[in-house]
Design goal:
CATH superfamily of the largest domain: NAD(P)-binding Rossmann-like Domain
Number of domains: 2
Strand order of the largest sheet: 3-2-1-5-4
Largest sheet: 5 strands, antiparallel
Domain XdhC- CoxI: 9-72
InterPro entries: MoCofactor_Util/Proc, NAD(P)-bd_dom_sf, Xanthine_DH_XdhC, XdhC_CoxI, XdhC_Rossmann_dom
Protein name: Xanthine dehydrogenase accessory protein XdhC
Domain XdhC Rossmann: 115-256
Mean pLDDT: 92
Number of strands: 10
Pfam family, one: XdhC_CoxI
CATH architecture of the largest domain: 3-Layer(aba) Sandwich
Length: 264
Amino acid sequence: MALELLRRWRAHGERAARIEVVSARGSTPREAGTFMLVTAQEQAGTIGGGRLEWDCLAEARAFLKAGGASVERDIPLGPAINQCCGGAVTVRIEAADLAVEEAAALRTREDLPQLLLFGAGHVGRALVRALSLLPLRLIWVDAREDAFGEAALVAEARVTADWESVLEAASPGAGVLVLTQSHTLDALIVAAALSRGDFRYVGMIGSRTKRQRFESGFRRIGITQERIDTLVCPIGDWGVRDKRPEVIAAFVAAEIAARFLARV
């Protein structure tokens, strides 16, 4: 849920309805517990799209105009609404308390998987924009205050050269993505991340030649080959040679989603 959007709604005194899938049976677009918030003009989140969501949005906006008690609807996802999922959902529509929703969204953001991104160059900025769409707590680190640009609005920007402290404070199971302006700094950060050994994902921008040179250095300082083998480099390696930052960012974001975020 977009925390900044909820804060704006509260500041402007907006009224909102909450649409929640309270049960899901069979094949459905989203699972029970999924919800979205709706105002007269905007929405946040999704219960799965299609005619199901379209009809629920219309009913939620009618609910906002008329007021009254919450309502529940049992909705088969079949020919009646021109969907062929085959399952069924029960959906509840009720008034939303935006203060409660904002507090819940803040807790959810704190609990999201951490991804530490080191480097605010042209690829770093494109990556932050792409990764901001994923369910991540994105911590972005660079010593250059003027390097972040507008992308800093969608991440936790840390203007610091003390990357060691940021890495040490990261939660076990976090991810690390390294693409600084310095190959020496890249090597130091990756070596520290691999040495720690409890990160779920460690990725570094670079060629296979860069990787080979770094691997030799890592072995010399005692990092085991087993840990070195966990390093993802090149990142976003889908066999496409397009080097535009936005294209690189798209492939790396897909890799993060598949390797770091996917539920199994």
